[in-house]
Protein 1
Amino acid sequence: MHSLNGEIKVPGDKSISHRAVMIGSLAKGTTTIKGFLNGADCLSTIDCMRKLGVSIACSKDDPHTVSIKGNGLFSLKAPTETLYTGNSGTTTRIISGLLSAQPFGSTVDGDSSIRKRPMKRIIEPLSLMGANIMSLFDNGCAPLVISPSHLQGISYSSPVSSAQVKSSIIMASLYAKGKTVITEPVKSRDHTELMLLAFGADIVSDKNTVTVTPGKELYAKDIEVPGDISSAAFFLVAGAITKNSEILIKNVNINPTRAGILTVLSDMGASLSIENERLLSGEKTADLLIKSSSLHGTTISGDIIPTLIDELPVIAVMASYAKGQTVIKDAAELRVKESDRIVSISENLRAMGCDVIETSDGMVINGGTPLHSARISTKKDHRIAMAFHIATLPLDEMNILDDRDCVNISYPGFFDDISSLY
Ligand code: S3P
C-alpha cells in the first residue's frame, strides 16, 4: 500500500497530438508542436505523414517538440509502401479519410488489434462521398485499399458518436465538391473542428452538427498540446482510492467533450478541485487537485458516455473501491476498442475478487468489498494495463501485469510517474 503525494504533469493529449501532425502537414508553412505525445500511436501518425512526403523533425533536445514543414492541402506525395498505423485506431481512420481524397492510391494497415477493429463505419460515409475504399479481405477491417476518385460533399447522420469517424469525413470533405454536413447522436470530441478552424478552414459546429465548406487554404500555426485527461484519469482515480493521498495534476485538457470523468468523480463523492482554468491553443485547460476520498456508487449512462469512453476502465476500478453499486450502460463501444474492454475490465476485476456482472453495453459493479492482487491479462491494451496497475495501489501486494510495455502506446514513463508520488 502506498499513499501518493506530490505534483505531476501528464504527457500531451493523444487526440490533439495526432491532429496537430496531420493538420500541420496540410497547412502552408512551418507548424511547431510543443507538448507532443511521443507515444507509439502518435509516432505512427508521424511515420505515415512522412511516407506521404511531409518533412517532420522531432527535436533532439526535447522529444515533445515537433516541427512540420507543410506545403498546403494538395502537396502530399504517393507513398511507396503500405502506411502502417500500428495499434492506432485514430491514425487508421482519420488518415483513410484524407487518403480517399488524394490523386494517388494507398494501402493502410495496422497490427493484429487494428485488423479486428470496425472500419465499415468510415468505409460507408467515405463511399457515399464517392471514395474508392475497400477492405482487402472484405471483412470490414484493415488492410484498407484506397484508389483515387473525386469526392462530393454529403449530409451524413452518423449512427455512432465517434470522433474518429467524424474526423475521417471532415478530412475528406476538405477536398470535396460542395459542403459536407455531419450529425452525430451525441457530440464526440471536437479537437479536429477547433484545430481546423484555427488553421483557416471554413468549419462551423452547432451542437452535434459540423458543416465543412471546402476551398480554404490552411496556414501553419504553432500548437501547445495540453496534458491528456485520459492519462490524468489514472492519477485522479489513484488519488481518490488511496489513503492519505493528495495529487496536483498540472496542465490538463478539460475540453467539455472529454471531461465526463470530472462529473463522475464528483457524483461518486470524490474530493476534487479544478484550479487555474485557462485556454491553451484554443483548448480548455486546468490543474486538477485530487485527495483521498470516501466514494459511493453511481450510474454512468447516456450522453456522458462519449465524453469519458477511454476513462471507463479506470472508472470501473474506482467503482470497485466505492461503496454500493455502480452501473455503466450505453457503452457498447467499449467492445470495439484496443480490446473488448467490457470483457477485459470484468475478467480482471473478477480476478481481484470484485463482484462484477458483464452486460451487453456495460457492467454492474458491486463495490466496496475487500479486493486482492491478481495476475492481470492486459490483452496488450494500454488502458487496461494502466487501470489495473492503479487498481492495486491501495493493496499490500501489487498486481502482476502480463504485459507492461503496452503502456507505451499512450503513456511512456507511466510507471515512473506513479512511483514518483510514493
Ligand atoms: C479518439 C476518439 C475515440 C477514442 C480514441 C481517440 C480520437 O474513439 O476512444 O481513443 O482521437 O478521435 P472513437 O472515435 O471511436 O469514439
Protein 2
Amino acid sequence: MENVWKKYDFSDEETLNEVCDDYRAFLSVSKIEREVVMNSIILADNMEFKNLDSYIEENKPLKPGDKVYVNNRGKSLALFVIGEEDITKGMNILGAHVDSPRLDLKANPIYEEDEFAYLDTHYYGGIKKYQWVTIPLALHGVVVKKDGEVIAVEIGEDDEDPVFGITDLLPHLGQEQMKKEASKVIEGEKLDLLIGSVPLQTDEKDEKDLVKKNVLEILNRKYRIEEDDFLSAEIEVVPAGNARDFGFDQSMIMGYGQDDKVCAYTSLRAFLDCPPCGRTISCILVDKEEIGSVGATGMHSSFYENALQEICNLLGHTENTAVSRCLSNSFMLSSDVNAAYDPLYSDVMDKRNASFFNQGVVFCKYTGSRGKSGSNDANAEFIAKLRRIMDDHNVHFQISELGKVDAGGGGTIAYILANRNVNVIDCGVGVLSMHAPWEITSKADIYEAYKCYLAFLQDA
Ligand code: MN
Ligand code: MN
C-alpha cells in the first residue's frame, strides 16, 4: 500500500492540520476521563446540545434534529442526534474509551520515610512499570469533601507548578537490579511518588513525620485538602506536560493517553461535524476500558441502554421492544487504537496483517488473544458495507490484527455492544509505544480516522 501523504493535495493538508492541531490541544488538557467528559460537554454545548435530564424532567417529547447528551457521573458520556428515520430502525454509533493507563493514589496514600514524604500509588491498566520512573508527573482528579464539595485537582501542568516523580537507582549501584527481569526491575509497591523534603517548623521536640506534616500543611493552605480527604478522592498520576508535534517533518504527535483519546476526539469531532442525516447518530465516550469496562461508568454498565430507553420513551416508543429493535438494527464502530508496526520490534508482528503508520484508519475484524478468545469477530457482510462506504468517501483504510497469533492480545469495548446484538467492528488509529507514558500517532492516520467516522455516521 502507498503512503497516504503522497496522495494529499493542499486542501487535504489544510483540514488535516486543523483537525490535528485541535486534537493536540484537546489532548493536552484532557488527560483523565473526567477532563475528557468535561471538555467534550463544552464542545457539545457550543453546538447547542442539551442534557437529556432536562427533557426527562419536563417530559418534553424529542423530535428529529434534537441534540442531547447523557453525563454519567462525570466519567462517561453518551451523545445523540435524533434522525428523521424511526429510531427502531437503528442508529449509527461511534464508541471510544476515555480512560488511560496511569497510577492512581491509594486511599491512604501519604507517608514519610527517612525525611522524605511520599504518595503511595496503585497502577491502573497495563503498564510497563519501569517506564514510569524518573519522568515528571502531575496529579489530576478530584477530592470530595464530606459535605459534597468537589475540589478539582490539577497540579504539575502550569509552568509555575511543581512536578512530582518516582526515583530509580543509579547505574553505579544497579548491578543486582539490572539482572532482574523487566517486570520486576521496578515493583508495583515501589511506584511511590516523592512529594517533599522540608520538615514543618515546630517547637515540639518529639514530634514525628514533620516532612509529611509540612506537605499536609501546604495541601491545606493551598487546596483546602486534609489528610482524611484522600479517603474520598480520585487522584490520578499522569505524565506532566503537553502533547507535542513529533519528528522533523512534524508528521506525528506524541502525547499521554492517546489510547484512546485519539479515537475519542476524532469520533466526537466527526459526530459534532456531521450534517443532518436520516438515521439517529450517537457517540459514546466511556470509562474503565483499560480494566475490563467494569463498574457504573464502564461499557458493561446499563447506563447506555437506560439512556436509550428514555430516548425511545420521549420519541413515543413506549413498547418494550423498542430498545432491542433499535440496537439490533444499529451499526457501530468501536473506535479504539491498534498496535502499529514498529520496525524495531518486527518479530511480534505478522507483516501481512499488521497495521502501519500512514496507511490510514485501521479496521480490526477481531481482537482477543490465542484462538480469538474474548473477541468480537465482525461479520463479513458488515465489513463489505464499510469497504463500500470508505471507498465512496475516499477514506484510506487498512485491515489488520493486533500482533502475531501467539504473541499476546488485547480487547476493546466492541464485544459488549455486539452482545446486545449491534453490528460492531473495531476501527481506529495505529499507535507506537502504546500504553507508554508518551505514545506516538501519525497525523495522516488521525485525519483518515476523522474522515472514516464522518463517512460512517452519514452512510452506514
Ligand atoms: Mn484502547
Ligand atoms: Mn489500552
